[in-house]
Predict the 3D structure of the following.
Amino acid sequence: MQYLLQLLISGLAIGAIYGLIAMGFAVIYKSTGLVNFAQGEMTMITAYIAWTISTTVSGNVFVVAIGAVLAAVLLGLIIERVVMRPMLGEPVFATVMVTIGLAVILRSAINFIWDAYPHGLDIGMGRGIVHLGGIGVRTGQIGVIATLLALLAAIWAFFRYSKIGVAMRAVAADDRTALLMGISAIRVHALAWAASSVIAGIGGVFFALSYDLSPAMFQLGLKAFPATILGGLDAVLGSGLGGLLIGITENLAGGYIGSDMKEITGFAMIIVVLMIRPFGIFGERDIERV
Amino acid sequence: MIKHFAAASLLISATCLAIGPVKAADPGITDTEIMIGDIEPLTGPPALLGVAASLGHRIAIAEANAAGGINGRKIKYVLEDDGYVTARTIQGVKKVIDVDKVFAMLGMSGSGQSIAVMPVLEKAGIPTVIDVAPVKFLWEPPRNNVFVIGQSYEEGIIHLVNYLADRNPGKTWGLITQDDDYGITVRDGFDSVVKAKKLKVVYSGNYKKGQQDFSSDMLQLKESGAEVFLAGGIIAENIAMMKELEKLGVKPVTGIFWPGRIEPVLKLMGPAGDGIYAVDYVEPFAGAAGKAFLEKAKPLVSEAEFKRINRYTMSGYAAAKVLIAAIERCGKQPTWACTISELEKTQNVETGVMAPISFGPGVRFSNQKLQIMQADAATLSFKPVE
């Protein structure tokens, strides 16, 4: 029983990180209709910035958190303004290729700006081990699960009750009609990129706290992608839950079947789910009226 | 007669002036300069080894240039980045040989990359010393112009497992390896000792390259009750494994392999890394030879570069020293043939960073002596134990 619980808790912790990054995918897709293949790299850049702040400015958790959030906002806005906005109205294929190019540039930037060594993010918390009923968990792992749950609730409220959230949903549903209603699609896109960068960046910072920073961290994006497909590419909350589902399933597969199964479980799951629900578990069916 | 002689002399002199100084038969060498090429991964995660190895080459070259170069010729270093992508390694080698026209080659990225460029190197016939990823294919069968400094991965693992088995008789074993050629080599070495010493293996895992979360793998290891553990990850993987074991509250006797034996790893492992064993053929920085090397390197590289020095810097330095010494022995007009012949004659060359290096007729592999080291978390260093 303890073996199962340990697998579940570890799965929830890594799943929460996948979930946060998956939510980043979904926020951009929901607002712009675009799959951002540089999501994992944006996550990594924010985590590296947090590490730089912790080693050069202050290791205080609040300073690092505020600095990392501001940096993530800036990163999202710069990418939207410099790279994505000029692509507005261009074919989807070209825009997706731009995000792939961006991914390669951001990946290489790690070595140009920082280095190839792994680094530990030390902010005086998150690395300690607590024992819950004999099960060892790092405090950072508890933190990321709590953060994901809090963000899921906050995002649900944001989309349901805030004016900006409703505007974002309107742009996602029909950007031309939204424009006629006085909603600036460009502003909504910029906001989506900033929000996506922050949400995924939080996942990256928690990953760096619980594990370590390394130039291979961008691969988290590859693990989070099945989560967002599973939850629904247009479902922000569903993507978060999809991350938890992927994390738990791959850990159970790794623990009960074997390490080899761990990495393929997520992709095996999306194949099965997409056969039954092509729009994901929580995604909306696209209805086209002719 | 005197008139004819004078005319002939004038003609010869004019011709010499027109064509400039007499050039050596092989490329990459002028009256004042000799060019050495290098291909390394300078971007992406493997830059950790590529940048460090290239620093080793640069330190040896800077040292030689400061002492007047090779018989009066300054060494010019041409470095190309392959990003650890095999296609780019081949492209890079072709570029430095055909376009930059270097005289000799060093480095050559990872094991897969070195294997892939072997036909290009053989066809070109350029003197080459490989120092980053020694794998058997590079020296078996021996290629005339390709020399390899180091020790085979398989021998390294055999040495480490034998050492741990002798000191932990009757204990149960666990092993995890990467799902690639590196992992297969580690597993092959491990299996050969398991068979010979009849070790009891209770856990055997295989992880996918790039895996970052080892929670279920280490939980399985814990459940298996393994008392001795061979962590077959490279760098980030070994760190993640050790921290996971710390979280689970278990500390088996652990051995790691030299690709991951770099000091920053210990800082990241924290107390979990204390006492782990490693095998290597280059000296640890905590020893006298390591300290002397760092002292030597400090004035020759920038502060930022100094921080990037690791064990690969030492292996790169040794390779460059051996190559430079061979070219030097060829005298004023070195050629490829002479350099290859002199490399072959290399006997007990002291580099200060590993055991003396030797090649021989038909021997293209230096077969370096191995040593076991143990991590000391307090000083964040590896110390020799045998």
Remarks:
- Chain A has a mean pLDDT of 89.
- Chain A has one domain: 2-276.
